[in-house]
Design brief:
Length: about 290
């Protein structure tokens, strides 16, 4: 992995680099954090605030190759979440090459703006659309996805910020805020249930209908990851469990014991009026106790 400086000042530095054979990306070093971003997928791969261990999990067996989604970090599921007709899982945004629009480094954070636009990208979603992402990486991390319908008829999208969080083990983690919320269980097909989630060991695949902040409490690492959503209506909590993970070529052996996905999502169709920008986002904070 060779790299060269794109931007540097007294607060931090951003290098351009290559992941795998040919995936272009950014290495970020700031007084408050380190991070990696792939332009393929417009995907934040890692973010590690100073004096904390890594927050985002990235598989050691991720395939950094065009046509494949990168396993880990925060893949963007868009313009659909989950399977859609015969279009495959999670839409196409995570397999597009995004453009780097700007970098700004100040004492608090590194701000990176990425963008992508396309038309007739997929037969199931031939519309003209533009995406923009604002990534503010410092002591906390704020991600905003802007979406614009660049055509002249109303569209619907669904999507998720599919964050893979590093944990000591999923069985050591709870997300108490979700306990009273109704959820749809994607494994059993049952909808609208409530039940205590005692831990996050997989197989687990639930769509919670809850639009407020959640906290992942890792009892072993004594760490809390708080996620504050913006304009999302659901949380998806996913861990494949061992039997499924062993069939996934891009999850390294035992990797399923290292992460829990907690995804700020709009899992059901949301209006995308012509010519207007809409957003979804999240802010991630870490604390140790
Ligand atoms: O393997 P993919 O396409 O990245 O999807 C991973 C998982 O993503 C989650 O969001 C879904 O709820 C799961 O059903 C899915 O298995």
């Amino acid at each position: 992995m060779s790299s060269s400086i794109l931007f540097a000042n007294q607060f931090g530095q951003v290098d351009k680099t290559t992941f795998g054979e040919a995936i272009r990306g950014l290495l970020i070093k700031h007084q408050y954090c380190q991070a990696k971003i792939s332009l393929y997928g417009g995907q934040v791969l890692t973010w590690q605030p100073e004096e904390h261990q890594a927050v985002l999990w990235l598989s050691q067996d991720s395939e950094f190759s065009p046509g494949k989604a990168i396993r880990g970090g925060i893949p963007l599921c868009w313009p659909w979440f989950g399977p859609y007709k015969d279009g495959g899982n999670h839409g196409f945004a995570r397999q597009q090459v995004w453009q780097l629009d700007s970098i700004d480094v100040d004492k608090d954070a590194v701000t990176v703006i990425l963008s992508w636009h396309g038309e007739k990208v997929h037969p199931l979603w031939p519309a003209a659309c533009e995406l923009r992402q604002e990534l503010v990486l410092g002591k906390e991390f704020k991600q905003t996805l802007y979406m614009k319908n660049a055509g002249d008829i109303e569209l619907e999208y669904s999507g998720a910020l599919h964050s893979y969080f590093c944990v000591s083990a999923p069985e050591n983690v709870d997300i108490k805020a979700l306990n009273p919320a109704k959820f749809d269980d994607k494994l059993t097909g049952e909808k609208g249930q409530t039940a205590i989630l005692p831990h996050c060991r997989g197989p687990l695949d639930r769509v919670y209908h809850y639009d407020k902040a959640v906290q992942l409490v890792d009892r072993h690492w004594q760490r809390t990851i708080e996620i504050l959503p913006e304009n999302t209506r659901q949380w998806v909590v996913w861990n494949p469990g061992t039997a499924t993970a062993e069939k996934m070529s891009d999850v390294h052996r035992g990797g399923e014991h290292e992460f829990v996905c907690v995804e700020a999502a709009n899992s059901q169709g949301q209006k995308l009026p012509p010519g207007r920008w809409v957003t979804m986002g999240q802010t991630i904070r870490v604390s140790e106790h």
